[in-house]
Amino acid sequence: MVFWRKGVADGANSSALLCDPGARPYATFEEVGMTIGGHQILDNISLSLEEHRIGVIGLNGSGKSSFVRLLNGLRSPSRGTLKLFGQIASDVLKELPRHVGFVFQNPDHQAIFPTVEEEIAFGLTQLGADKRESRDQARRFLDTHGCLHLAGKPIAELSEGQKQLVCILAVLVMKPSLLVLDEPLTSLDALASRRIRHMLLSLPQKIVMVSHHLDHLESFDRILWLEDGTLRMDGTPSQVLPAYQADIDRKFEAVQEAEAF
Ligand SMILES: Nc1ncnc2c1ncn2[C@@H]1O[C@H](COP(=O)(O)OP(=O)(O)OP(=O)(O)O)[C@@H](O)[C@H]1O
């Protein structure tokens, strides 16, 4: 499923679209913070995003999912200024789903239609295609990606890897300029993970991907390391990944030492 807010801009009124999908940077955070229920989740994030491949890392609860949810309007800042595709994010919430495809860790949180074809077709109807046209387009799209054999299959009967692939295709069919992936490969076996990663890296779309697998991010252009809701480090994989790994090693040793006493 693709997340649409009620009244999303459709094909008929596309002249009213405000976002520039080619904007560089496509996202600008100025002292952005987020508080939910009195709990500070993100604080004082200032950065611009324009690289083709950006990885987001950090320990559990560091704010990665909250951060990437800001990019498609699933979450909103409580403080600071967030601009997406050249516009203040809160001014373009309805338009964001056409530019930002969001893939969740668990396909069961995303797929809502009974069959693969319906899941893929839904996004096309949201873009203005009629039902029949969207079904035809969905089948052609599945064919292009070597998945036509899955078209009529119930999503519930697919393997985890097939489900995740369908979720990614359901987002891609709408040709977003940015793909945001929140740990999309976690439940996949090594082969399925590698195949989907290979497919993702061959896409023309810009990608922001959360991952706990540091080796999956080695070829990326930029890594953001979040810690306790703040940006701890921002740089190339060769700068950030070893520093993050060393920090984990230090924390592990500290816990071991504390437990020894
Ligand atoms: N709706 C919410 N209400 C209250 N607290 C929340 C909410 N969503 C997230 N949090 C808290 O915000 C913090 C960051 O959560 P988030 O899911 O962004 O972290 P994460 O880095 O993605 O974690 P993980 O690696 O475990 O997925 C956590 O302490 C979490 O409990």
From TrEMBL:
Keyword terms: ATP-binding, Nucleotide-binding, Transport
Superkingdom, taxonomy of origin: Bacteria
Classification via Gene3D superfamilies: P-loop containing nucleotide triphosphate hydrolases (3.40.50.300)
SMART domains: AAA
Entry-linked PROSITE patterns: ABC_TRANSPORTER_2
Segments crossing the lipid bilayer: none
Residue ranges occupied by any ABC transporter domain in the UniProt entry: 27-253
Single GO molecular function: ATP binding
Family named by the database record: Belongs to the ABC transporter superfamily.
Protein name (Swiss-Prot/TrEMBL): Biotin transport system ATP-binding protein
Organism the protein comes from: Roseibium denhamense
